[in-house]
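Weekly structure sync, notes
Attendees: PL (lead), two postdocs, one rotation student
Agenda item 3: pending single-chain targets
PL asked that the sequence for the first pending target be pasted directly into the notes so everyone works from the same version. It is reproduced below exactly as submitted, 169 residues in total.
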Amino acid sequence: MVRDKEFPVYGINGFRATLLSPARFLDNSPEKKLRLEDGREVLVSASDLESKPDGSFYLKNPVTAAPEAEANPQVVPGPSYTGEPLFRENCDIKRVPMKRLLDKPAEPRQEGDTLIVPLMEEVLVLEKRLLLREELHITRRREPNPHVSPVRREEFEEPQPPPEPPPNV
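Predicted structure, written out during the meeting:
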């Protein structure tokens, strides 16, 4: 299904509307659909629209709504009423915190009726890691010392108790 694009339409006495068309020039239909400022959609003759260089259109014959047109929505003087229901689109915006590091930038994506737009920021990441600079390898070994003679005899003396201090006079 081709979605209509919107192009501004101007006319005399401050008239403003929006042209709803799949393309600006490639639509060869004899009637064009306009959405008026009050939300009504009407059909006008393609010959009544004059293309302007800025991308807008000028409506040569003004659209007027007479009281009898309000009573009978199928008959509007000049253009005819499409009779299609009008819709208003609203958006609900929900912020979902993620706090996740990414390897590459995330792209916007569509999930059902929800458009998900990632909001990213660049952050400086500092890490504290251990760096092994060097190792000390310590090996114990026993070697005989040739300059010391072995002990041939050992004696044990019992410790003497310390002498008693003199009495205080």
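Discussion points:
- The two ends are 124 Å apart (CA to CA).
- Residues 67-71 form the longest helix (5 residues).
Action: rotation student to compare against the earlier draft before next sync.
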